[in-house]
Amino acid sequence: MNGQVPLQATVQGLLSAYINAINTWTVTENPTGSDCATYVGIVPPGPCPAGSIQITDADDLTVTYFAPSTPGTYHVNAEWEDFVNFSGPPAAIKTGRSVITVGP
């Protein structure tokens, strides 16, 4: 419990002109609209029931997942979006998911 897991995303199939970086990391089981976010730097101790994510590189491709003390199965999601026109919806979205089981 309260362990840490390093995670790395790889975005494949991009043209060289595109930035190879993740736009969003989330944990599915954390409440929507909560203060449970992705942190740069020190992850504050907090009430994130499904754990927290700390960005560990400049492109957001490598993060550390901080598991909660509550046993369960948690889903860490990485999402990359290609915004050709920043005033509209993304032209392409790529997502990936890691399933992490926390034991007692």
List keywords for this structure.
7 strands, 0% helix, 4-stranded mixed beta sheet, 104 residues, 3-stranded antiparallel beta sheet
Could you walk me through the main structural features you see in this protein, from its secondary elements to its overall organization?
The chain has one domain (4-102). A hairpin with a 6-residue loop joins strand 4 (52-55) and strand 5 (62-66). The chain is 0% helix and 41% strand. The strands form two sheets. It has a four-stranded mixed β-sheet with strand order 1-5-4-3, with no helix packed on it. Strands 2-6-7 form a three-stranded antiparallel β-sheet, with no helix packed on it. By secondary structure, the protein is mainly β.
Helical coverage, percent range: under 10%
SSE pattern, N- to C-terminal: EEEEEEE
Morphology call: globular
The overall number of domains is: 1
Helix count, per DSSP? 0
Mean pLDDT: 78
Largest β sheet strand count, sense and barrel closure:
4 strands, mixed
Which structural class is indicated by helix and strand composition? mainly beta
Question: Would you identify the regions where 5 or more consecutive residues have pLDDT less than 50?
Answer: none
Rg? 15 Å
Assess the beta-strand content as a share of residues. 35-45%
How would you write the strand order of the largest sheet?
A: 1-5-4-3
Quote the distance from N terminus to C terminus: 7 Å
Number of strands: 7
